Amino acid sequence: MDENRTDLELDITIINEPRESAISLSDIYGIPVFREDSYIAIRNYELLRDHRLGRISENVFEEAADRNSEIVEIISAKLFAENQPLVQAPVREAPSVDNMNLMIIGFQVVGVLFIVLLGFYIKRRNKKREVKLDDIKHFSS
Fold first, then answer.
1. Number of CB atoms found within 10 A of residue 68's CB
2. Does 50 fall in a domain?
């Protein structure tokens, strides 16, 4: 048997072809990445893990006398621990009398300022109107 000969055929034409899927070449050509015993070991590990998680989830809610695992004790302690809420509702204080008086004074100051500015505007507008009327009177006479 020739040591340099393999049954692997490389098709380099697919390099130039655009592909939309992200499938590995080993999956496309059916080349196993792991040996059969690797697949069996992975499956056994997954079954053991699922079994352990199932036992832990069953034991967490049982009475304390039935617990025999340190992991179950730790999970139960964390699960049933009474914790303070992480977010507390903001505390709103009722407005004090000083704040209310300050708001009232502020509104009054703004109101007076508005009235004064409105008076200046009206006075200025009337002066312009008088100037225009005087111009019209001088022009027409």
1. 8
2. yes
* pLDDT on residue 10: 75
Could you give phi then psi for residue 81, rounded to 5 degrees? -70, 140
Cα separation, 138 vs 27, in Å, equals 101
Closest C-alpha among 125, 123, 122, 127 to residue 135: 127
How many Cα neighbours within 13 Å face the side chain of 22?
0
Distance set, CA 86 to CA 75, 81, 103 (Å): 20, 14, 35
pTM metric for this prediction: 0.32
Residue 84, CA atoms < 13 Å, CB-side half-sphere = 4
Do 17 and 73 fall within a single domain?
Answer: yes
In terms of Cβ atoms closer than 10 Å to its own Cβ (0-12, 13-18, 19+), residue 75 is middle
Is residue 2 domain-resident? no
Question: 2-56: per-residue pLDDT in tens?
Answer: 566 667 777 777 777 766 666 776 777 766 777 787 788 888 999 999 988 887 7
SS3 of 45, please? helix
Residue 1 lies in a domain: no
